[in-house]
Write a structure and sequence with these properties.
9-stranded mixed β-sheet, globular, about 575 residues, 19 strands, about 40% helix, 21 helices
Length: about 575
C-alpha cells in the first residue's frame, strides 16, 4: 500500500522533567489538537491481559505489558481504554505424585467490580453471536471487555484453529462496537500483537461504509493505528485459511471494497495476520532496541518492515517493594513521574549503601515467605527461604528458547554452588497448554532434582506461576537468572523487576537487556551452550560472593540501576509512545 503521507513527521522529544511535566499537563488541558481526551482516548487492544486483581489472568509478558500500560496511564492521568476479553475460564496447575495436573476454574466478572453495559453481536456463517460488554473505570483509564459463556479461556484451541479465530474476531469487531456503545471514538488504536488486527479492520470498514472514499479511509486508519510486535520471526505466526475467513471474518465486513482488500492478502489460500497488519498500521513498534533492528517481517511485496523501538517498561509502583520505592523517591533516585531524577541521579544512586540494600531485600524476603506459605512445591510441601540464605530464581514462561533447564546441565556443579553458598533455587513458570516438548523437559528436570539429595533439598519448583508469585520473587530473591538464546528474546520484563528491586541480574545479552552495554550486569555468554553453562555457573558464584562483600554488592547494584532504571520505567515507555504517536 502506498504511503500517502508525504511530509516528514517531526517528533518533539521529551528529555527533561520539565518537558515531561508540561506534556502531561497539556494532555490534562486537552491541548493536543483534540487528539487525546476522555471522549477520544488512547485505545489499546490486546488478546491477553495479566491483571489478577481485576480478575484477568494472562499467559506471559504480553499480558503483563498490557496491564502495566493501563496502570501507567491511570498514574499519569492519560485518557486510556484497554479493550480485551474477559475469559470466563482460567487454567491452573498443581502437582500430584510428581506429575503436573492442569485444571480450570470459572470466573465471574461481577466479583471483580465489572459492570454490565449491554450486548453487541458479531456474525458468523453459522449465525450471529451475542457478546456481553462489561466495563470498569479506574481513574482516567478503563477496562472495556467483551465476554460470553462459551468464550473459553485464554489461548484455548490450537493456534490457527476456528476457536482462536473466533476469539480474535470477537475482540476486534465486538470490541470496536463496544467502544461505540459507550460513546467513545479512538484517538489512536494500538494493536498489541496481530491477534488484535480485526479492530483496525472494523474501523476501516466503518469509515468506508459511512461514505468515506476507500483510499482516504485506508490513509486515515493507517495514521491512527500503531502495531506493536512482540515476536521476532514472522514464520512463528499462526496461519489461517480462506474458508475460515469466510465463516468468521467476512460476515462482519459491510464494505465490498474492504472485503476485496483483505482477500488480496491471501497467498495460496492462506494468510498470516502480520501481512495486513503492517499495511493497515503506519506506526509500527518493536519492544526493545535489538528487537526493532532484527525483527524479520515483510509486507506482501516482500519488502522488510521497519520498526520503531519503544522498549517495554514496567509499572514500578506495582512491581517494586513499596519500601524500595519510598527509598528511591526519598533519596533523589526517582522523580514524581517515576523517571530517573534529572539532577544528580547517578550521585544519588552511588549513595545507596550495602546496608540499605540488605535491609530492603530482607523486607522483600519476608514478603516472599508470606506468599510462599500459601504455595506448595513439587512434593506438595510449603517452602520457606531462611533470611540468611542466598536465593536464585528462574521465573519466566517455560519455553525452549528461554532455557529454564540450562542450570541443570551439570547437576553436581549446581549442587556444589548451592551448598557452599547456603543458597536455594526457585524454579517457577508455566508451560503453555499443548507444549508437550517443554512439558517433558520440565518432568525430566523434576525427576533429576528428585534423584540428587542436595538439589532435592535446595531446588524448589513452584507450579501455577502467576503475577503474585512473580512479584514476590522479584522482591525477595537475591539474584535472578535470565538466559534466553541470544537473538530470540524480543524484550522480557521480569529482569526489569529484579533490577528495580535491587537484585543481581545474571543474563545473556538479549531482548531489552541489550538496550545497554553488557558490562552493567553479570553477563552469560559463550560460543556454544557448554561455554554458556560454564559462564552461568561462574556468574552464580560471583553473585553469591558479592552479597557478602559491601564493595562488590554496591558496585553491581549501582551499575544496574544507573544503566537500566530509565529502561525499566513504565512512565518512560508511555512518554516514548506519546512522543511517537503525537
Amino acid at each position: 500500500m502506498e504511503d500517502h503521507h508525504t511530509e516528514p513527521r517531526v517528533y518533539h522529544r521529551l528529555d527533561s522533567v520539565e518537558e515531561v511535566e508540561e506534556f502531561y499537563q497539556a494532555i490534562a488541558r486537552d491541548r493536543l489538537t483534540q487528539k487525546l481526551s476522555p471522549e477520544r482516548p488512547y485505545c489499546y487492544w490486546t488478546i491477553e491481559t495479566y491483571d489478577k486483581s481485576n480478575g484477568i489472568r494472562g499467559g506471559g509478558g504480553l499480558g503483563v505489558l498490557a496491564a502495566d500500560m493501563r496502570r501507567v496511564a491511570e498514574q499519569l492521568k492519560v485518557p486510556f481504554v484497554l479493550v480485551t476479553p474477559f475469559y470466563p475460564w482460567e487454567s491452573h496447575q498443581k502437582m500430584e505424585n510428581m506429575e503436573q495436573i492442569d485444571y480450570h476454574t470459572e470466573k465471574n466478572y461481577e466479583d471483580f467490580g465489572f459492570n454490565f453495559v449491554d450486548t453487541v453481536r458479531i456474525r458468523t456463517a453459522m449465525g450471529s453471536v451475542e457478546l456481553d460488554v462489561i466495563e470498569k473505570q479506574l481513574g482516567s483509564s478503563r477496562f472495556l471487555c467483551i465476554t460470553e459463556p462459551n468464550f473459553g479461556e485464554l489461548y484455548s484451541g490450537e493456534s490457527g484453529s476456528d476457536h482462536r479465530l473466533y476469539q480474535e474476531v470477537s475482540l476486534g469487531f465486538g470490541g470496536y462496537q463496544a467502544l461505540k456503545l459507550v460513546g467513545l471514538r479512538p484517538a489512536v488504536i494500538q494493536l498489541n500483537e496481530v491477534a488484535t488486527f480485526f479492530a483496525a479492520v472494523a474501523r476501516l470498514d466503518e469509515l468506508v461504509s459511512s461514505g468515506m472514499d476507500f483510499y482516504e479511509a485506508v490513509v486515515y486508519t493507517r495514521k491512527h493505528t500503531l502495531y506493536t510486535n512482540h515476536t521476532l520471526v514472522q514464520a512463528a505466526e499462526a496461519t489461517f485459511h480462506y474458508d475460515q475467513f469466510e465463516r468468521y471474518v467476512f460476515p462482519n465486513i459491510k464494505s465490498v471494497a474492504v472485503r476485496r482488500w483483505l482477500k488480496d492478502k491471501f497467498t495460496d489460500g492462506t494468510i498470516r495476520l502480520s501481512t495486513p497488519t503492517v499495511e493497515i498500521a503506519e506506526l509500527r513498534s518493536g519492544v526493545s532496541k535489538l528487537h526493532a533492528r532484527v525483527a524479520n517481517y515483510h509486507d506482501i511485496n516482500g519488502a522488510k518492515i521497519k520498526f520503531k523501538s519503544v522498549t517495554n517498561g514496567i509499572h514500578l509502583r506495582t512491581w517494586v517493594l513499596p519500601e524500595i520505592m519510598d527509598y528511591y523517591h526519598d533519596h533523589g533516585v526517582l522523580d514524581r513521574f517515576d523517571l530517573p531524577a534529572t539532577r544528580d541521579f547517578e550521585a544519588s544512586v552511588e549513595k545507596i549503601s550495602a546496608a540499605d540494600i540488605r535491609h530492603l531485600k530482607n523486607l522483600g524476603r519476608a514478603r516472599l515467605n508470606e506468599v510462599l506459605k500459601h504455595r506448595t512445591d513439587q512434593y506438595g510441601n510449603t517452602v520457606q527461604i531462611p533470611e540468611d540464605a542466598f536465593l536464585f530464581d528462574f521465573k519466566r514462561r517455560f519455553v525452549d528458547y528461554k532455557r529454564p533447564t540450562l542450570p541443570f546441565n551439570d547437576p553436581d556443579r549446581l549442587a556444589d554452588i548451592l551448598e557452599r553458598n547456603n543458597a536455594h533455587y526457585i524454579l517457577a513458570g508455566r508451560v503453555h497448554m499443548g507444549d508437550s516438548n517443554m512439558f517433558g523437559k520440565l518432568m525430566d528436570t523434576l525427576h533429576l532434582i528428585d534423584s540428587h539429595p542436595v538439589l532435592k533439598e535446595r531446588v524448589h519448583y513452584l507450579p501455577d506461576y502467576d503475577e503474585e508469585l512473580g512479584l514476590a520473587l522479584s522482591q525477595g530473591a537475591n539474584s535472578s537468572i535470565n538466559t534466553p538464546i541470544v537473538g530470540l528474546e524480543a524484550c522480557g520484563t521480569s529482569w526489569m523487576k529484579d533490577i528495580a528491586n535491587m537484585g543481581l541480574l545474571i543474563s545473556t545479552h538479549d531482548g531489552g537487556v541489550a538496550d545497554m552495554p553488557s558490562d552493567n550486569y553479570l553477563t552469560v555468554d559463550g560460543k556454544n551452550e557448554e561455554q554458556e553453562t560454564e559462564n552461568l555457573y561462574r556468574q552464580m558464584e560471583v553473585a553469591a560472593k558479592a552479597w557478602g562483600n559491601d564493595f562488590d554488592l554496591e558496585y553491581w547494584i549501582h551499575r544496574e540501576i544507573i544503566a537500566y532504571m530509565d529502561v525499566c520505567s513504565g512512565c518512560r515507555m508511555m512518554r516514548d509512545y506519546l512522543n511517537f504517536l503525537f
